Amino acid sequence: MRSNKLFISLAVLAVSASLLVSLYHLAYYHKIYPHVFVAKQEVSNLTLAQAQQAIHDQLPANLPELTLVFGSQSWPLALNDLNLIYQVETSAQDAYLLGRSRGLLGGFKAKWQRWWQPEVLPLKFIFNETKLKTGVGSIAGAVTEPVILPGLERQTDGAIKLIPGKNGRVVDENQLYEQIVLQLANLDFTPIVMPVKIVIAATDNELLVNAQARAETVKTKQLNLVLDKQTITVKNQELLNLIGFEADWNETEIASLAARLASQINRPAQDAVFQFDGNQVSEFKPALDGLILDETTAKTMILAGLEQLVKDAAAEQTITLPIITSAPKITTESVNSLGIKELLGKGESTFFGSIPGRRHNIALAAGRLNGQLVAPGETFSFNQTVGDISSSTGYQAAYIIKNGRTVLGDGGGVCQVSSTLFRAVLNSGLEILERHSHSYRVGYYEQNSAPGFDATVFAPSVDFKFKNDTVNYVLIQTTADLSKSYLKFELYGTNDGRITTTNNIRLWGRVPPPAPLYQDDPTLPAGTVKQVDWSAWGGKAAFDWNVTRNGETLHQKTFYSAYQPWQSVYLRGTGGI
């Protein structure tokens, strides 16, 4: 009997629950369930069309500006510029589908939760994200103040100035961007206080004093870093930048220094290329080992060197940094049978300030020497190899020395090429048979050299000649970089052990230039003055050159140069008088 009553009670309860659920669904048939909001607008018990209208009614007629605030300052963000469009239909659809699109169990749970827990949906919208990020970045830039880290500055008189540093501030642009999007989705146009982070730069005063003390210790010292065949000197301000404040040394700056050194030295291995066309090499690339600076070990060694610089009384420390090498697959020696396998010597010069015609001629003449081979025992003639220098062979007018005057003539600048080759031959230790100095000192040849390292040519009488006194061929390679006003000659062959020294470089008997010369010129308008020649001091120059091999002297010579003083010459217009 009791079981029958229990069964009847459960049946009544089930029927009641079923009826209640049915009535609930019937009440919200084609309507949004209770306690549902889109942004600030409640859309409960509304049809889809009614919800769309209700959402639309809460939209502002015109989008306002959104104000971004920092302290007492504010900046407007124009929402109209963002191409912002609110998606009313999509947002209403999301509200309507709430409780209808999660399956039987999920839907029932969502419907039940609506009775006691409101659901606030964002109002969907589309906008130009790039424009918003640009606007946020622009306003953030007005607020941001870069942190000034403590530093040490070397003054012109050598004194060390301590810069204590200053805190900075930066806007969290990502957080600000997200806050703007959130407020737009909720139709909240109230001002936004920008999230600003303070960047601390302050350092304990004792640490500042210690850093300055280290700076005083090393301010006149230097650290020499040897990489392969070059030495980088770290001194003055660059050395001070390596001093730390929180720690003895600034490891970030040291890592940056190691990275810069790596960028200078690192290179992949280069296979040799040698293409021979008749009597000339049309393409040549010497084999080069690959080089990689071991930055981790280098940083440790630099730190140790800095510590030693502080402890020792010595004015400098020299460290050879670790270079990892890799051999090329194809060596220079393997691509030719002429003995062209290594660099014998090189010569360099610069020609800043040259007129266009002179620059053109330098590149042209250097190009005609590039790839030339000099056989064992052969005498090389500059004039013969370069050939005719005239407008018919491509040369342009530039200043030359002729009949005691500096005048425009075909091929001006070719002596830059012969002078640079002279320097390469000197450094290679080959026998020099003929060399002539210029009549007067030319500034181009002293831009990166002492006086006396020039070689003039003027066919057919004035030439530059050398002899290949090795048992293998010598290859001439040239590089004319007009963008850097730089010329380089490299001579390749087989190193037979000769050692070249150049010393006792001297200049004496300096003579000032004569007074300027003014010459009347009826082809120029009256009152016009045009300079056509430039003054130069006269004097004598010399240097001693020695080439030895295994203790035996191969060549020993003193190269003399006698330079006349040169006067400025001006043309004075007399036309029309």
Automatic annotation (TrEMBL):
InterPro entries: Glycopeptide_resist_protein (IPR052913), Vancomycin_resist_VanW (IPR007391), YoaR-like_PG-bd (IPR022029). Signal peptide: none annotated. Residues 75-186 form the YoaR-like putative peptidoglycan binding domain. Pfam families: PG_binding_4, VanW. This is YoaR-like putative peptidoglycan binding domain-containing protein. The lineage of its organism: Bacteria, Candidatus Beckwithiibacteriota.
